[in-house]
């Protein structure tokens, strides 16, 4: 490694920060993404897995029955994972005649991620992590997604990711719109992740969300998270391989991105957060390391500054993760304009259970 390739996260890892045994990957088949026409028992099971009691799950089923098809799809599959990831250029589509927002005019720059009628864009330069955590929560909890999409709170105030008037500065008027609800949830999550981030002390809000509090507060269904620094070893990187395996098992993974000393000391720290949302299925009998296991597969990355889903070859993402390589333009766009993946927030067992590592 030459000095220009230096990243602060790698220095921290060398002294023991953000390293340790990798968590076990979530079991395959447990976190299956529902389709928009899935039956009531599936929807109830999703709500119960996210920690909601039976009456809330029943109200969720009733509320979904009142939605238009595209709204229901936004609630049950906000990250569009029921469709196997493939190149964005294959996915451009006009606006649905029923009113569902469609893909943008130039799919090379990603497919807009829309919740209700609002594009899922971070509200300011410090809330990329908050936007990612909000989308992560919605993807794993249809009660949260229903509130974001339609404004209906079937939890009746009991859900920690549903913002009520007055919380996080939210006004009644703001909460009437999808964009307002998404903005309010970002502010709420930013307040949580900056609280008690340095022992009892808060994290400076101007610096966004640190990885350790993102891991502390991240939720997807009944999954909790931990964090690990990415060594930058490309297709041999164990942390990024774990992230890919988790996403392939149906559990999205927040990734921190940044630069290196070659572009200035201020860029050599984690600067942005994206969400590794999904990975296409493996070929039958695929085995081996990341290069063999993920060869020919595609992944989906949610990038909050553009509010878009980017579809990439996994091989390109792995190559771009190398500290000594310059990634492609497509990888840079998916990483929010930054060249490297520096930190990963990995699934670490089920909430209320032990943190299983191996």
From TrEMBL:
Biased composition (Low complexity): 95-107
Name of the protein in its database record: Uncharacterized protein
Renumbered residue ranges of the record's region Disordered: 78-109
Bias type Basic and acidic residues, positions: 78-94
Species of origin: Oerskovia douganii
């Amino acid at each position: 490694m030459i000095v220009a390739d230096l990243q602060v996260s790698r220095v921290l890892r060398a002294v023991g920060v953000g390293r340790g045994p990798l968590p076990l990957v979530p079991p395959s088949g447990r976190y299956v993404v529902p389709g928009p026409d899935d039956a009531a028992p599936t929807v109830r099971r999703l709500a119960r897995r996210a920690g909601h009691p039976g009456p809330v799950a029943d109200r969720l089923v009733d509320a979904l029955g009142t939605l238009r098809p595209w709204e229901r799809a936004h609630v049950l599959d906000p990250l569009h994972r029921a469709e196997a990831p493939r190149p964005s250029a294959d996915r451009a589509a006009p606006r649905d005649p029923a009113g569902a927002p469609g893909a943008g005019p130039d799919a090379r720059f990603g497919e807009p991620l829309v919740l209700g009628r609002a594009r899922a864009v971070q509200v300011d330069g410090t809330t990329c992590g908050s936007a990612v955590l909000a989308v992560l929560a919605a993807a794993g909890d249809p009660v949260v997604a229903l509130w974001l999409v339609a404004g209906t709170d079937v939890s009746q105030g009991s859900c920690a990711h549903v913002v009520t008037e007055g919380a996080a500065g939210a006004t009644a008027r703001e909460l009437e719109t999808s964009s307002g609800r998404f903005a309010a949830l970002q502010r709420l999550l930013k307040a949580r992740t900056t609280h008690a981030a340095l022992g009892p002390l808060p994290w400076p809000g101007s610096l966004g969300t640190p990885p350790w509090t993102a891991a502390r507060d991240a939720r997807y269904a009944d999954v909790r998270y931990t964090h690990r620094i990415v060594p930058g070893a490309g297709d041999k990187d164990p942390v990024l391989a774990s992230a890919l395996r988790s996403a392939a098992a149906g559990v999205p993974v927040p990734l921190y991105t940044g630069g290196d000393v070659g572009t200035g000391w201020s860029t050599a720290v984690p600067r942005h957060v994206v969400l590794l949302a999904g990975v296409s299925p493996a070929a039958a009998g695929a085995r081996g390391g990341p290069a063999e296991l993920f060869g020919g597969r595609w992944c989906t990355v949610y990038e909050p500054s553009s509010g878009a889903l980017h579809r990439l070859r996994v091989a390109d993402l792995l190559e771009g993760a190398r500290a000594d390589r310059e990634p492609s333009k497509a990888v840079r766009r998916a990483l929010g304009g930054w060249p490297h993946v520096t930190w990963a927030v990995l699934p670490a067992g089920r909430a209320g259970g032990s943190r299983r590592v191996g």
